[in-house]
Design brief:
The chain is of the alpha+beta class. The protein contains seven helices and 16 strands. The protein has helices at 7-17, 103-113, 147-155, 237-242, 268-285, 312-333, 343-346, and strands at 38-44, 49-66, 73-74, 87-94, 118-119, 124-125, 130-132, 174-175, 185-186, 188-195, 201-208, 213-215, 222-224, 257-262, 286-287, 297-302. Helix 2 (103-113) crosses helix 3 (147-155) and helix 5 crosses helix 6.
Length: 352
């Protein structure tokens, strides 16, 4: 089975590398199309919430770009190109608001047990940046990911196809909160990848917990987002904003977090530029995005396992397309919860 791709996704591939062939679109692997990366989830179904871990046991050069006004992160200062450590060993994405940052401690423990980390002579210290989203409003807020969640997610990590939807950090994700929580819909986790004929791979994993709507860039139509007051259709956040209506989104209760990865060799500064460019994918597929009440964060990873060369601009442009595609996949793979329908439950898109 080959993943379907939007016309915009394929057009960018054509401009950068020529006409895509069958090898350019790979079966359902997502981020793990980048060899030497593994992805694992642990879901706390009793709420639901959870965490997702991207494991790079051999290390990966990393960058980050934070654009939301209410971020919850760990070790992002370390990824500044002027700072010392070049490579990370995992990235943790978690629900649970700031409490969920503790999941990274469990992933560190799992890596340390395997002798993986930055060598400081007396120990090997795993480098594990992390970002969280707010999902405490769904179910019992005392149920949230901790160190055990991060350990179990790392333990479950594999190089197989990435599971999408209501899983890991996407278990409690929601979208379309400009009309308040009662008009929201289910978000989730999605992953997408491009494999070019010369061997370059660019892939993304996104957890979509946005204030705004998810919009298909190819059609301009809303896929999931704020519902009409009767809950039966999509209101379109763009129209609500233009109408001057008061918006009900609350600070710190949102956030879309993502990882974009490539097998191309990049420097730390180039990885940072890729993370910056990849945010364009969020802007294409989420409206509005990067609000003061979001904590939108994109990490970039370079494994450097490909012998070819690609510019940071090429990788960043492809990364933005992979992220936009992963956002769409996240809400399309999601399943509804009581009072919180998924995209598949409403039947048709909102009018553009």
């Amino acid at each position: 089975m080959v993943r379907s791709r939007s016309p915009l996704f394929l057009a960018v591939a054509f401009l950068l590398v020529g006409t895509p062939g069958p090898a350019d679109l790979i079966p359902d692997f997502g981020l793990t199309a980048v060899k030497s990366l593994k992805v694992g989830h642990h879901t706390l179904s009793e709420r639901p919430t959870g965490c997702t871990v991207v494991v790079a046991e051999g290390g990966a050069v990393a960058g980050v770009d934070v654009r939301g006004g209410a971020p919850g992160t760990r070790e992002t200062d370390l990824l500044d190109p002027v700072n010392t450590v070049e490579r990370v060993h995992a990235i943790v994405l978690s629900g649970g608001s700031a409490f969920g940052l503790d999941a990274a401690s469990g992933t560190m423990r799992w890596l340390e047990e395997r002798g993986i980390g930055f060598d400081v002579s007396v120990a090997k210290v795993p480098i594990v940046p992390a970002a969280i989203l707010f999902d405490l409003g769904l179910g019992d807020p005392k149920v949230r990911p901790g160190a055990d969640c991060g350990y179990r997610a790392a333990q479950a990590a594999s190089d197989g196809p990435v599971v999408e939807g209501n899983v890991g950090a996407g278990a409690g994700a929601t979208v379309g909160k400009l009309g308040g929580p009662k008009r929201a819909m289910k978000g989730g986790l999605g992953s997408s990848s491009l494999v070019l004929s010369g061997g370059l791979v660019v892939a993304a994993l996104v957890v979509v917990n946005a204030v705004g709507d998810v919009v298909d860039p190819a059609t301009g139509r809303v896929v999931a987002g704020v519902r009409e007051p009767d809950g039966q259709g999509l209101a379109d956040a763009r129209r609500l904003i233009r109408s001057g209506q008061a918006l009900a989104a609350r600070p710190g209760e949102n956030t879309t977090i993502a990882v974009v990865a490539t097998n191309a060799p990049l420097t730390k500064a180039e990885a940072t530029k890729v993370a910056q460019m990849a945010h364009d994918g969020l802007a294409r597929a989420i409206a509005p995005v990067h609000l003061p009440v979001d904590g939108d964060t994109v990490f970039a990873l370079s494994t450097g396992t490909w012998n070819g060369t690609a510019s940071a601009g090429q990788v960043g442009a492809l990364g933005a397309e992979a992220i936009a595609d992963a956002v769409l996949r996240a809400v399309r793979a999601a399943t509804g919860l009581p009072g919180l329908p998924a995209a598949r439950d409403l039947g048709g898109p909102a009018k553009p």
